[in-house]
Amino acid sequence: MEIRKVQKTGASTMTVSLPKSWVDQHGLKPGDPVSMITLPDGTISIDPKREKRKDSSKRVIWADDKESSEHLIRKMIGAYLAGFNLIEIRSKERLDHNIKQAIKDFAKLAIGPEVIEETSNVIVLHDLSDPVELPQEKCVRRMHLIVSSMHKDTMEALNPYDTGLAHDIIDRDVDVDRLYWMAVKQYNLIIRDRRLSEKIGVDIFQGMDLVTVARGIERIGDHAEKISKNIILAEEQEIKLENADELKKLSKAALSILDAGIDSFFQKNIKNANSTIDSGKLVTVECEKLSASTRIKNTQAGVIFNSIIDSLIRTTMYGMDIAEIAINAAMRDGDSK
User: Fold this and answer.
1) Alpha-carbon span 48 to 183, nearest angstrom
2) Could you tell me the pTM of the whole model?
3) Residue 1, domain member (yes or no)
4) What does the DSSP 8-state code read for residue 220?
C-alpha cells in the first residue's frame, strides 16, 4: 500500500499523484483520459483505457475421453461461478458424445449459459445472464419461496405417501441450485469489478452476507430432497412411519424459524433475530425428544424416521444461522436495535 498526500493545486482543486509504475504499466501520458468511479464503500476506482476494455472474460477447459462427465461439469461450474462469461471446452480429438451431452446438460442447469459455437472438437458457451436483472437479493428471496414450498410439500407427501409429489420436490431442488450458483457468481463478479456493486446496490459486505444466506437456504433445500427420498424408500419397502402428525408439527415449526430468520435478515431486526434463535433452540429440543421416544430405533423404519428428524433439526439450525447473520449485518451497519 502506498500513502500519498492530498495536495492543493488551485483555489478549490485537490490532487493526488498516480504511482509512476502504474502509469508506465498502462502507457499513460499527460492529457490521457481515465475513468473515475466512487464506489459504495467510499473508495475511488481509476480505470485506464476503459473504452478498450473487453466486456467478456474467457476460460478454456480441455477435455478428453478419459475424463468423466461429472468431473467436466464440476470444472464448468467452477468457471461459471468465477464469473467467466465465455467458457470454451476443447479437445485434441473429436469430442465424445457423452462429453457433448454433459456440456449441454450444464447449459440447462445454470442460468445464462448458451451454446453459441460447436465444432467436432470445440464447444463455446456464452453466459447471457445480466446480474442487474437478477441481483443477489432477488435470487435469495426466490430460493426462500421455493424451499419453503418444498418442505411444506414433503409433509403433504408423508402421510399418506405420495411418491409423485416426492419426485416433484426432488426435481425442484435443481431450481434452488441454479439460483444459488447465480448468487455466488454475482458475488465473485462484485469482487472482480467494484463498479457492478454500484449498479446493483450491494457492496462486498452485503454480497458476502447474501451468499452465506443463500448457502443456508440451498442446504435446507437439500434436506427437503433428502426427506422426499426417504418417503419414496418407505413407500417402496411398505414401511409405515410412526408419529407422522408430530413430524408435520415439527416441520411447520422449523419452517417458521427459517421464515423468521429471513425476515430479520432483510429487516436488519436484531430483536427478532435473537427471538428466532431462542425459539429455534426449543424446536431442536422437541425434535430430539421425539427421536428419543421412538420405539423403532433399530429397524429400517427407525433409520428413516430419525433421518427425517435430523433433516428437520438441520433446517431449524440453518434458519438460526441466518438469524445470526442478520445480527452481524445489523451491527456492521450501525443498527443496534
Assistant:
1) 29
2) 0.83
3) no
4) H
Domain of residue 28: give its range. Answer: 7-52
Helix (H, G, I), strand (E, B) or coil at 74: helix
Total domains in the fold of the chain: 3
- Cα Rg, the chain, nearest whole Å: 25
N- to C-terminal Cα separation, the chain? 37
Q: Which residues contact 320 (CB under 8 A, 6 or more apart)?
A: 257, 261, 276, 277, 280, 281
Cα(47)–Cα(49) distance, rounded to whole angstroms? 7
Q: Which of 86, 103, 127 delimits the end of a domain?
A: 127
Nearest Cα residue to 147 out of 128, 169, 125: 169
pLDDT digits (tens, 9 = 90+) for 166-197: 999 999 999 999 999 999 999 998 888 777 77
Helix (H) or strand (E) holding 122: strand 122-127
Tell me how far apart the alpha carbons of residues 114 and 130 are, in angstroms, rounded to a whole number: 13
pLDDT digits (tens, 9 = 90+) for 11-67: 778 888 888 888 888 888 888 888 777 765 677 878 786 554 444 589 999 987 777
Distance CA 52, CA 250 (A): 58
262 in any annotated domain: yes
Cα(189)–Cα(132) distance, integer angstroms: 12
